[in-house]
Write a structure and sequence with these properties.
159 residues; alpha/beta; 2 domains; 6-stranded mixed β-sheet; Protein-Tyrosine Phosphatase, Chain A
């Protein structure tokens, strides 16, 4: 009988762990988070953003945007919503050595930089202190958890 009880507890514990993990993953999905001011800029992050929702929010922001993100998110967003280029001052790509966009989109964005990894992007951002701007960080895919941790460490320097 004790074997049956311990088996039930193990199953119960597994279900609780799975539920907790699901909650943690849900926190990373479908929500833009505001982080106050970082380097004089309004700071936001969005892990695993849906392109349509991300574009709508970006177009509604009152200031020019400095966007640190992954190539495919940036490319898909701008290709689907070319008018976004009017809101983008700077794009910092973290996972490719170039931004593969249509030439007309590229010429509409003031600054485009490609760096290796989020850590290098954050170091570059430190040189861009700017008021009346928005700093947006997005990430997704396999590296989302690691990049979110790097982002959280970075913004903790300013709080």
């Amino acid at each position: 009988m004790s074997q049956k009880v311990s088996k039930q507890q193990t199953t119960e514990q597994q279900l609780l762990q799975a539920r907790e993990q699901g909650k943690q993953e849900a926190l990373l999905v479908n929500a833009m988070n505001a982080h106050g001011k970082v380097l004089g800029m309004d700071c936001f992050s969005w892990m695993n953003p849906h392109i349509d929702a991300l574009s709508s929010v970006m177009e509604s922001l009152p200031f020019q945007i400095i966007w640190i993100g992954q190539h495919d998110q940036i490319k898909d967003c701008i290709n689907a919503y070319p008018s976004l280029t009017d809101s983008l001052e700077t794009i910092i790509v973290t996972d490719r050595t170039l931004l593969n966009l249509d030439r007309s989109h590229l010429s509409a964005i003031k600054n485009i930089v490609c760096v290796e990894g989020a850590t290098n992007a954050f170091e570059l951002l430190k040189t861009m202190k700017k008021e009346k701007s928005v700093f947006l960080f997005t990430s997704g895919g396999k590296t989302v958890q690691k990049e979110k941790e790097l982002f959280d460490q970075f913004i903790s320097l300013f709080n």
